[in-house]
Structures are given as C-alpha cells and as structure tokens.
C-alpha cells in the first residue's frame, strides 16, 4: 500500500531544492562519516556478522547543518510516521537503506544510504537520496528501533550519535543457552571471560528477550535498555551498540563478541570455564575506580 505524502508545496521552486540535495553529500563532515561507514561495513562483512542484507547503521548528523540549512527541508514532501517522535524534531539521520548489503556499502556507500529528516511536527519524515543512487532507497526496516533510540539519546543529551546493529555470531550463539537469557546472567558471563569487559563495560550489557524485529515493541524495549547500557543483545538475533562514532560502536560489539567467543571456545573442551572470580572482578573495579 502506498504511503500518503504530506505537506507538498507545489509552488516551491525545485531548482534550489535539487541543488541543496546534491550539496548535502559533498559536505566535508558527511564525507568523513561515509568514509568511516565504508571501513566499518567492511569489518562487519569480514567478521561474518552481516550475511546477505543483515545489519544496519544510523548516525545523527544534525549538528553538521545550520538552522537555515535545516529550514530548507521544510519544503520537501513528507511521509507519515507511525507515532510522534517529539525528541527528534528537525533531526537529520544518515541511515543504511533497506536491502543494502554491508559488502556493497564497503564498496560504495552512496549507493546504499539515505538521509531521514524528521518534520517540525515530529510525526512525518522525508527521505533524501544521494543523486547518483541507482535505485529508490528507503531506510532500513529497523527504522522504528533507530528512531526510538536516537530520540532517547537526544532527550538525555547523550554524546552518542551512532547506532550499529549486526548479527554478532558469538552473541547469538550464547543466547541459545537459556542460562544467559537475562541482562544479569549475560553480563556475568561476559565479565568473567575477559577483564576488558569489566573495565570498558562497567555498566554491563542490556538484553531483550526474543521479539519480532522491526516492531514498535522491540524498539521500545531496546531504547529502555540503552538508557543504562551501551550494548544491547537481542536473544537469538544479534546485538546493537551506540557510540560517538561508528568505529566506537563497532568496538563495543567487538569486545562483547570476544568475551562470548572465549566462553564458546572453552566450552568445546567439555568443561565449564571457571572465568574470573567475583573477588577478581571486584579488584578490577576497585583498581579502575569503576
């Protein structure tokens, strides 16, 4: 079913609008983001965390634009959102497109990304595509989750502007063990397996029980987890991480995967790995004032 288009002003002179759209992707700051996106998409593909069109990334790039530049977006046609995102009023997000493959993003991101601008009413959005995109781009099917998390980050004044979702093999495998299907048990085993997880993730890890992806339910559950944890694991599906940069968000996933991989490797011997003791974890926290 086609979506209803809102706020179309047919009197708008299209030439300045088209020129502005073309200029957006030439901004130095945007080019730096797409360059980093290229590298991290390659990492996700090489790690086999992004099979087929798996995984998605979004970046809040509003700060790269002046108020006058953002005003220009009000002349564009808008599509309705399923709900109001008041915290995202006049926010601009760079989002990987639905159906995009990380291996293709690593090759040429401007063929696989789009921008999403949230209207003044916070109830509609406009999609901006790179001029040379060869197909009609739409944002990832996980857009509700990205919007909910970015809204939470904006409302809280967080420094994190990036969200990375991937099918992290080691974390998916760990959640197939029902012993680790809670935030407490998952955090406990990851802390025990690697001292770096205690040092770099002292708040622990969030966990969302299996929920249909792309829904408002999983969006809301995940956003609530991110109020306390920079990494959230989806049972039997994958994980999400926030960061100030795309590379930082990837590093959060990489560290969690390392700890999960250690557990899985040790378990193959047939013995339950001992891991760090509670006392050793306390000593680490005391030493680093965590």
What does this structure look like?
The protein has helices at residues 14-24, 28-46, 67-72, 102-107, 143-156, 169-175, 183-193, 195-200, 216-226, 246-267, 278-287; strands spanning 56-60, 79-80, 92-96, 113-118, 124-128, 162-166, 206-208, 231-234, 238-243. The protein is an alpha+beta fold. It folds into two domains: 14-141, Class II aldolase/adducin N-terminal domain (L-fuculose-1-phosphate Aldolase); 166-287, Class II aldolase/adducin N-terminal domain (L-fuculose-1-phosphate Aldolase, 3-Layer(aba) Sandwich). Helix 5 runs parallel beside helix 9 (216-226), helix 6 crosses helix 10 (246-267) and helix 7 packs across helix 10. The longest helix has 22 residues, at 246-267. Residues 1-15 have low confidence and may be disordered.
Distance between the termini: 52 Å
CATH topology of the largest domain: L-fuculose-1-phosphate Aldolase
The CATH class of the largest domain turns out to be Alpha Beta
Kindly estimate the percentage of residues that lie in beta strands according to DSSP: 5-15%
Helix content: 40-55%
Radius of gyration: 20 Å
Query: CATH H level of the largest domain: which superfamily?
Result: Class II aldolase/adducin N-terminal domain
Order of helices and strands: HHEHEEHEEHEHHHEHEEHH
By DSSP, the count of extended strands is 9
The overall average pLDDT, rounded, is 92
How many structural domains does the protein architecture include?
2
Helix vs. strand class: alpha+beta
- Uncertain residue segments: 1-15
């Amino acid at each position: 079913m086609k979506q209803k288009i809102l706020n179309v002003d047919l009197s708008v002179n299209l030439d300045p609008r088209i020129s502005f759209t073309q200029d957006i992707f030439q901004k130095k700051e945007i080019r730096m983001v797409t360059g980093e996106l290229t590298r991290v998409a390659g990492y996700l593909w090489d790690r086999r965390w992004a099979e087929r069109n798996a995984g998605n990334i979004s970046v809040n790039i509003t700060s790269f634009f002046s108020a006058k530049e953002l005003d220009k977006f009000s002349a564009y046609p808008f599509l309705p959102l399923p709900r109001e995102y008041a915290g995202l009023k006049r926010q601009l997000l760079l989002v990987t497109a639905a159906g995009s493959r990380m291996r293709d993003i690593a090759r040429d991101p401007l063929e696989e990304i789009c921008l999403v601008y949230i209207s003044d009413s916070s109830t509609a959005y406009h999609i901006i595509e790179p001029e040379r995109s060869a197909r009609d781009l739409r944002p990832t099917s996980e857009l509700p989750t990205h919007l909910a998390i970015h809204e939470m980050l904006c409302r809280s004044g967080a420094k994190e502007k990036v969200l990375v979702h991937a099918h992290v093999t080691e974390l998916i495998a760990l959640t197939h063990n029902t012993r680790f299907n809670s935030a407490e048990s998952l955090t406990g085993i990851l802390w025990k397996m690697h001292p770096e997880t205690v040092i770099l993730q002292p708040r622990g890890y969030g966990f969302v029980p299996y929920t249909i992806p792309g829904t408002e339910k999983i969006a809301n559950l995940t956003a609530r987890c991110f109020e306390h944890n920079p990494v959230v694991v989806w049972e039997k599906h994958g994980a999400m991480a926030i960061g100030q940069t795309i590379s930082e968000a990837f590093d959060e996933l990489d560290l969690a995967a390392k700890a999960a991989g250690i557990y899985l490797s040790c378990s193959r011997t047939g013995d339950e790995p001992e891991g760090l003791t509670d006392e050793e974890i306390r000593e680490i926290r005391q030493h680093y004032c965590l």
